[in-house]
Amino acid sequence: xxxxxxxxxxxxxxxxxxxxxxxxxxxxxxxxxxxxxxxxxxxxxxxxxxxxxxxxxxxxxxxxxxxxxxxxxxxxxxxxxxxxxxxxxxxxxxxxxxxxxxxxxxxxxxxxxxxxxxxxxxxxxxxxxxxxxxxxxxxxxxxxxxxxxxxxxxxxxxxxxxxxxxxxxxxxxxxxxxxxxxxxxxxxxxxxxxxxxxxxxxxxxxxxxxxxxxxxxxxxxxxxxxxxxxxxxxxxxxxxxxxxxxxxxxxxxxxxxxxxxxxxxxxxxxxxxxxxxxxxxxxxxxxxxxxxxxxxxxxxxxxxxxxxxxxxxxxxxxxxxxxxxxxxxxxxxx
Length: 334
Hints:
This protein is α/β, with parallel strands linked by helices. The protein has helices spanning 3-6, 8-17, 59-73, 114-125, 151-162, 191-200, 230-235, 252-263, 276-287, 293-296, 312-328; strands at residues 22-31, 41-45, 50-52, 77-82, 98-105, 130-135, 141-144, 166-168, 171-176, 180-185, 203-208, 225-226, 243-247, 269-272, 299-300.
């Protein structure tokens, strides 16, 4: 994990706890081809140190100057930066993009309460999905969780699913999701390129295969490998809606327990290797255990998008494409 970009709330809290004056800047809106997406954050310390990015260009210099003023007067501010196409690259805004940035001092005047920042950091450390809602009119702020039963919770639901910050009326919703995780059952040839692709896509990985010859460290250097039976390994991992499970062994003794464990969880993706005929037998076998047709319909099989893949690497590409599509798109596959 690159702490400079992924742990801005933690960095800001560490600085504040150490006695520094700190401000947070967040991208709350973009138009055109802005270089950093909504929700991107920058922590600015009173001595001018900074971590993170809101533009990738020299807009940061202007934001830091505004942050120093916010630390002095205790007032948040909304800033808008936009340039014509011919001047865009000079300030880091490609193709004439425009960005709107919220700058908030921590623990000063109408700024960001350190207790709320600590709550955000604690939720992230506990792996809890949450969102920070900030009203851009009166600076009301609140930590919102998925199980909250109110209008704000309804506003954040889609953002939590898609990992995207949003602006609803005057509410800026910044998303703080747990890390993405993938559990691969079967340390087979397809798993070798798949773990590399999944890591590049931002997933934490665990390979599960009780067959130690398959799940050898020499075949998967640097990977987290469990030699427990799949159902036992998954039971210890607290599967949630940020998890994907992929079974690759073709062996019902290994795949079926993993499938049952995945279907008992909120994992967003379950994909299983095998032909249509193999999957039909799988559905019949699992249906006999009491799993309902609705539950079994959650299985993506044959695993991966149908792109005509043949080699292990191509099959891994098809699997990652389907995983990402399932994570980001609201529609089911057909």
